[in-house]
Amino acid sequence: MTTPSLDTEYADLTPLQVRIATHQHHSEYPDDPVAEVLAALGLTGTEDLADIGCGDARFLAHLRETGHTGRLVGVDASLTMVAAAAAVAGVTALHGEARNLPLRDGEVDVCTARHMLYHVADPLVALSEFRRITRPGGTIAVTVNHARTCHRTHQLVAAHASSYGLTPPDGMINHTVTSDTLPDMMQDIFGNTTIETHDNALVFDRPGPLIAFAEALFTFCGIAPDSPHRVQILADITSEIEQWFMTHPDQLWRDSKGYSIATATITG
Questions:
Q1: Cβ atoms 229, 167 nearer than 8 A
Q2: I need a labelling partner for 248 at 20 to 30 A (CA). Which of 11, 110, 133, 158 fits?
Q3: Which UniProt keywords apply (predicted)?
Q4: Phi, psi for 13 (deg, rounded to 5)
């Protein structure tokens, strides 16, 4: 059995895509973090931009599709994600880690790091790298989740994993990186930071989407893709969720969430 890790989690596009779709379709209030990041950046469309931890590069694809003419670079530590980014027309895809980016000093006008800094063991080193690759006058935008985002569903999965002796793996999530701590980290590196906070929740009115979201959290709770317990854990979770909806017919399953966007301008 493989050990759950960021490598195993992001070797497959599906869990990430399920999580993104869940937030798109099951948020209590309209939730469009891409639009919020772009509003915070105020791009002209000509900037050279690097998206660190680009995932499947849908953010970069959106930029290109909406007329961005500047160079677009996607960097990810997962070869699967790099391949997905390389498949997007007009995107340069690079394999690399946030603590040692494969970009030259001052190579881009804008650096974005959306929902990835909590995957980095040394976030201040990563922020310093973001500063290094961004030209004077350029902009950094970093997005991280609130502490305990989607905690209810995480705890549900973790409890069932624990019943089979499985625990959340070390190193996948740096729990010190949250909306509470990001402002001070940004201030340490950049000295000038603007923070926007967005509060929301996931809400589910039926079992299916919640079950799919719960399964998309498996690796983070210690359940490897090839775990011999995976099928039974999914069956146990499915049973509990279906039972909850049966016994709470007039209620929604609600799970609080939120994120912050921190932006800074490179001076000097």
A1: no
A2: 158
A3: Methyltransferase, Transferase
A4: -70, -25
CA separation for the pair 156, 161 (Å, rounded): 9
How far apart are alpha carbons 110 and 139 in whole angstroms? 5
Express each pLDDT in 5-37 by its tens digit.
Answer: 999 999 999 999 999 999 999 999 999 999 999
Question: Do 201 and 28 form a contact (C-beta atoms < 8 A)?
Answer: yes
Write the CB contacts of 176 (distance below 8 Å, at least 6 apart in sequence).
123
User: Based on C-alpha coordinates, what's the Rg of the chain?
Assistant: 19
Question: In CATH, which of 3.40.50.150, 3.90.360.10, 3.40.30.10, 3.40.50.970 is domain 6-265?
Answer: 3.40.50.150
Nearest alpha carbon to residue 141 among 107, 174, 117: 117
Question: What value does the mean pLDDT take over residues 102-121?
Answer: 97
Q: Is the separation of the CB atoms in 199 and 258 below 8 Å?
A: yes
Structural tokens at position 2: 């493989």
| Confidence (pTM) | 0.94
In whole angstroms, what is the distance from residue 73 CA to residue 57 CA?
Answer: 9
Q: What is the rounded average pLDDT for all residues in the chain?
A: 96
Q: Is pLDDT above 80 for 1?
A: no
What confidence tens digit (pLDDT) does each residue in 220-242 have? 999 999 999 999 999 999 999 99
